[in-house]
Amino acid sequence: MPAASDVRLVVFDWAGTTIDYGCVAPFGAFVGVFASRGVEVTAAEARGPMGLHKKDHLREMLRLPAVAARWREAHGRDWAEADVDALYAAVTPAQLAAIEPSAGLIPGVLDAVAALRGRGIKVGGTTGYFRAAAELCYAAAARQGYAPDACVCADDVPAGRPAPWMMFRVMELTGVYPAAAVVKVGDTVADVEEGLNAGTWCVGVTDTGNEVGLTEAEFAALPAAERERRRAAARERLLAAGAHAVIGSVAGVLAVVEDINRRLRAGERPEDFGTEE
After folding, report:
1. What pLDDT is recorded for position 274?
2. Sign for the pseudo-dihedral over CA of 131, 136, 139, 144
3. Which of 149, 201, 247, 257 minimizes the number of CB atoms within 10 Å of its CB?
4. What is the mean pLDDT of residues 251-272?
5. How far apart are alpha carbons 180 and 182 in whole angstroms?
6. Which of 20, 54, 122, 207 is catalytic?
7. Is 187 noted as a catalytic residue in this protein?
8. Which tens digits make up the pLDDT trace of 220-241?
9. Closest CA to 182 of 49, 271, 53, 51
10. Other beta carbons within 10 Å of 1
């Protein structure tokens, strides 16, 4: 096995990390599909399971006691697995329709990727989106100049996040191992768990992602103190999930990679550490 003396692969999430500032597309689809079934859900309820395969996401929402109670009130019975299938069938076209309008690259992505590749580091992508939605993301990003070396979606593997299979598949496709030479970057707890389960370094993203959950314009319009409050809350949640570091956006990834390289050269490995402030 080759020694991990430097990072050789960085694997980015998609919505909320590299495209779709605020993770708007999947969020709106989940809220809408529940509303169409007579069940109102809050932003926190819709965003909580973000990063999972979309069917798993729906299932986790229905398992929330408050959502389960509203479903029971609206339908006169508890939800069943057939309801998950029906919701998934409805959310699929809703998400496909929402992707293109929200698929703008997040500021700093192209420069960050160019800097990584300039250091010989490969770039991968994983997503909880199903295949058709993932393909729309890939195409939209490519038109804007972003094309990872390898992309894997939840439909490509036996199980999506928090299982490590997408990470392992990207490592296989790019020919990079061991896991200590790999960094996972994402904006959800599921992203962090995916990386940890794969044995890689994990970097959380706050400002642009699901935990803050605002578009670029909405986030910029907040008073400075409120921006910092929301950023701090997102940071705390990602660190609590096990992230080794947290950044505001992908624009800050190179500094983290350079720090990880210093750790690797000192003989440190991802499993040696808890989270760091």
Report:
1. 53
2. negative
3. 149
4. 95
5. 5
6. 54
7. no
8. 999 999 999 999 999 999 999 9
9. 271
10. 5
